[in-house]
Specification:
- By secondary structure, this protein is mainly beta.
- The protein has a single domain, classed as Sandwich (Immunoglobulin-like).
- The chain has two helices and ten strands.
- Strands 1, 2, 3, 4, 5, 6, 7, 8, 9 and 10 form a ten-stranded mixed sheet that branches.
- A hairpin with a 2-residue loop joins β4 and β5.
- It is globular and about 45 Å long.
- About 7% of the residues have low confidence.
Length: 141
């Protein structure tokens, strides 16, 4: 009976364990700032692709998934409907590229803060992570 229970636990949660989040971080924002960006690397250990479909935090009214594109000499951000994470692959959210946009932040993000974020994946479900706030990418402060 104990073996059956253990097997059921393993079979019921394999997708959740398949997506790993590496180095979630955000830059400190200026006083009065209403938006902030979040970055991380998503690793999909599964044999099929997954998709980050949404995110939320109690520290902002909403969180959007954005990409940055170049239009001639102008960089533009636009919202997208999530990010595809390839099977057995990775997807990086980074400055100048795909990123989370924290909209209507309740207070500016200060160096040393921790921003709790719930990530929602199409297959892996919800994963809670903490974004560390600093002056730049981890290891590059």
């Amino acid at each position: 009976m104990r073996s059956l229970a253990f097997a059921l636990v393993l079979l019921s949660s394999p997708a959740w364990a398949q997506v790993e989040v590496e180095n979630p971080w955000s830059r400190a924002t200026a006083p009065g700032a209403k938006v902030a960006a979040g970055y991380m690397v998503l690793h999909n250990k599964a044999a099929s692709q997954d998709r980050l479909v949404s995110a939320s935090t109690p520290l902002a009214r909403k969180v959007e998934t954005h990409v940055t594109t170049r239009d001639g000499d102008i960089m533009r951000m636009r919202e997208v409907k999530g990010y595809e994470i390839p099977a057995n692959g990775r997807f990086e959210l980074k400055p100048g590229g795909p990123h989370l946009m924290f909209v209507d932040v309740k207070k500016p993000f200060a160096e040393g803060d921790v921003v709790p974020v719930s990530l929602r994946f199409e297959k892996a479900g919800e994963k809670k992570v903490e974004f560390r706030v600093g002056r730049g990418a981890p290891g590059r402060h």
